[in-house]
Specification:
Layout lengths: L1 H26 L11 E7 L5 E5 L8 E7 L7 E6 L5 E5 L5 E5 L10 E5 L8 E7 L2 E6 L5 E5 L10 E5 L7 E5 L1
Antiparallel strand pairs: 1-4, 1-12, 2-3, 3-7, 4-5, 6-7, 8-9, 9-12, 10-11
Amino acid sequence: MRTNKFASALFGKHILTVCVLCLIALLCPNKAFAQLGRGSYYVHVALDTNYCLDLHKAVVNDGSNIQLYRSNGTQAQRWYFEPNSDGTYYIRSTINRDYVLDVKKAVVADGTNIQLYHFNGTKAQKWYLERVSPGYYYIKSALNPNYVIDLRKGSVYDGNNIQLYHYNGTKAQRWKINK
């Protein structure tokens, strides 16, 4: 008898959870609840999808800079998204997956550099994805989700820096993530 009551209570909780998630999805259609699948992706800036996140000179070292560069199909522009159980992602270099996107010195401030750094599992290396529209996301820092990956001054040109910046909803902060 106890097992049936337990199973009934557990089953009822799952139904309630599913109903709540469905209601949230209906009321907030721009929020992503579906996860981006594990795998390699290009990350293009919404201002001009001919440009994407790029590892400067394809050099894998602690502190290597992340920049914007015209899409060229190289490994320096492919990123491996690895989902975590807490809803965050590690965004790894496909050149060497021991290195990930990282907020320099874990400083949450406008203009802090986004760099490549050896994996250490800290919040400076964890990112939330918030879907804006199909295929487009804000990439939010786990250090403070009010800060996102941003294209410096919203200027599209080869070599422009990628930085952390407070969320302002511009296309300089929206990223098209695709295979």
